[in-house]
Design a protein that fits this description.
Elements: E1 5-13, E2 16-25, E3 30-37, E4 40-44, H1 49-60, E5 67-72, H2 78-84, E6 89-96, H3 99-106, H4 113-117, E7 122-126, H5 129-134, E8 144-149, H6 169-176, E9 179-189, H7 195-202, E10 206-217, E11 222-232
Parallel strand pairs: 5-6, 5-8, 6-7, 8-9
Antiparallel strand pairs: 1-2, 2-3, 3-4, 9-11, 10-11
Helix pairs in contact: 1-2
């Protein structure tokens, strides 16, 4: 079968050329959506299990109702839409540095876009998540019930050098200031659990865990895995 590509959008951005494309994947006989930044593949709708589990595992660590959730990294939207499935979520804010990505969803170019943008709980914000975390929260800010982050490939492999500070003890303490007491921080990673990063997380948070999320890989015919780190603010 010949794989058919359809370029849905291409834009030049401060961190490289960004492309959204749709193609037929022979291994499953279905259309999938892919995002490339320069020469790097950022994400594919063929593999969304761990992105969904980022929300499921992160929100499972939080108690209460009317949760305020912040998602760092919009991408194809699967993490954000998974958060909306939790009826306890009262407000969902999604931050993405690239206005082009927000535009894809506002134009409803992706399969989950209508669910995301038509939900009144959703707010999409064009901003640098990492800069927002470095800034002090407003004095009357109650903090987020959960912060779910999926931007970089892993704590060691960042898309931009400016992201590196967040994965240090100092950077995580700044992020913790944006969490409500007992709030959860969850992070997606393409790599296996990183013992050094886990030690760094434990210096800041409580209840730290690394969940290995396995999923079938129709391209290789085997099983692949990602990691979802989850931790709770000590308040």
């Amino acid at each position: 079968m010949i794989t058919r590509f359809e370029e849905l959008d291409w834009q030049s951005t401060p961190i490289g050329d960004l492309m959204l494309r749709r193609r037929t994947e022979p291994s499953v006989g279905e259309e999938i959506y892919e995002v490339k930044l320069g020469d790097e593949y950022l994400m594919s709708s063929l593999f969304t299990v761990a992105e969904v589990q980022l929300s499921v595992l992160g929100l499972a660590a939080v108690e209460g109702e009317n949760l305020r959730v912040l998602v760092g990294g919009l991408g194809l939207g699967y993490t954000a839409v998974a958060a909306l499935r939790d009826e306890r979520v009262g407000k969902l804010t999604v931050i993405d540095r690239l206005g082009a990505v927000i535009g894809w969803h506002e134009r409803e170019l992706l399969p989950v876009s209508p669910t995301l943008v038509r939900d009144p709980r959703t707010t999409l914000v064009e901003a640098d998540f990492f800069a927002v975390m470095r800034a002090d929260p407003a004095g009357d800010d109650p903090g987020y019930s959960a912060i779910l982050l999926d931007v970089d490939h892993s704590p060691r492999h960042q898309l931009d050098p400016s992201h590196a500070h967040l994965y240090t003890e100092g950077g995580l303490r700044q992020l913790d200031q944006h969490l409500a007491p007992g709030g959860a921080f969850a992070l997606w990673s393409d790599d296996a659990p990183d013992d050094v990063f886990l030690t760094t997380m434990r210096a800041v948070f409580g209840g730290v865990a690394a969940h290995v999320v396995e999923f079938a890989n129709p391209v290789t015919g085997g099983v692949s895995s990602n990691t979802v780190y989850v931790a709770r603010s000590r308040g």
